[in-house]
Write a structure and sequence with these properties.
By secondary structure, this protein is α/β, with parallel strands linked by helices. It has ten helices and eight strands. The structure holds 3-methyl-2-oxobutanoic acid. The site of 3-methyl-2-oxobutanoic acid (KIV) has 11 residues, from strand 6.
Length: 289
């Protein structure tokens, strides 16, 4: 994808991606408002290496999603991952970045019981990782949890539409909010805003509904499979770069074929090892200095 390089920025650091990012200071919650001129990009990150690349590329917000369960730990859904498993990943992403605002997902079962449980998990994650905000799934039913976490000083991102932690109740990873079901998604989105969240992830809903909710809400809507009218777009980075050989969801447009690139790199190296082509003299140490 060609990257526009504005005057005065070094190649590969497209600061125009997000104007508030251009002063090199760490972005804060107040930088993310509805009034941005252009939709802004958000990516997931789970380790220091990718987090640094995305930060250097000017991505203003990184999400350490519980999608880590699937794309990092090889599980078939996000239900089993725990705060203890996510904490080292969140810590690595915060440590590797200097400008991105880092949002940490609250894992399934770590906040649903009641507001006290939700706050305890949020405090644990923020204190042990330095994450700047937490994200949790659910609308009306999570109203009290969101309100309590926000009141205690931790910014919250809501998440409605397809909420992967409810995959068993939803009967699979399916489009939400079609037809009459749209009204429930709207009520959930409004409840998240009313509870005090500063942004909302809206996942896998019809584009028309994505537009309607974006127009209704005063907080920014971060879409994923929610059409092209939301205030921001988020993707799991492995989807963006074709890092898996599974068929991507309809909303995913891979910008690289990382799976094939890495596979062919590995095959070349393995072949060179077998043929004793690698390591050659240049890549070996000699007895002489
Ligand atoms: O866990 C995750 O990565 C997410 C995004 C897909 C929004 O919640």
């Amino acid at each position: 994808m060609p990257i526009r390089v504005p005057n005065g920025t070094r190649e590969g650091a497209p600061m125009s991606l997000y104007p508030a990012a251009s002063n090199h200071a760490r972005l804060t919650v107040s930088d993310f408002s509805k009034s941005q001129q252009h939709p802004w990009p958000v990516l997931t990150a789970y380790d220091s290496w990718t987090a640094k690349i995305f930060d250097d590329a000017g991505i203003p917000m990184l999400l350490v999603g519980d999608s880590a369960a699937m794309v990092m730990l090889g599980q078939s859904n996000t239900l089993a991952i725990t705060p203890e498993e996510m904490i080292p990943m969140i810590r690595a992403v915060v440590r590797a970045t200097s400008r991105a605002f880092v949002v940490a997902d609250l894992p399934f079962g770590s906040y649903q019981e009641n507001p006290d449980q939700a706050l305890a998990t949020s405090l644990q994650i923020v204190k042990q990782t330095g994450a700047h905000a937490v994200k949790l799934e659910g609308g009306i039913r999570m109203h009290e949890q969101i309100r309590y976490i926000v009141e205690c000083g931790i910014p919250v991102v809501g998440h409605v539409g397809l909420t992967p932690q409810s995959v068993n109740a939803l009967g699979g990873f399916k489009v939400q909010g079609r037809g009459d079901a749209a009204e429930q998604v709207i009520r959930d989105a409004l409840a998240v805003q009313e509870a005090g969240a500063f942004a909302l992830v809206l996942e896998v809903v019809p584009a028309e509904l994505g537009k309607r909710i974006t127009e209704l809400l005063t907080i920014p809507v971060i879409g994923i499979g929610a059409g092209n009218h939301t205030d921001a777009q988020v993707l799991v980075w492995q989807d963006l770069f074709g890092a898996s050989n599974e068929t991507p969801a309809k909303f995913v447009k891979p910008y690289l074929d990382l799976y094939e690139l890495m596979k062919s790199g590995v095959e070349s190296w393995a072949n060179d090892v077998q043929q004793r082509i690698y390591p050659d003299e240049f890549h070996s140490y000699s007895d002489k200095k």
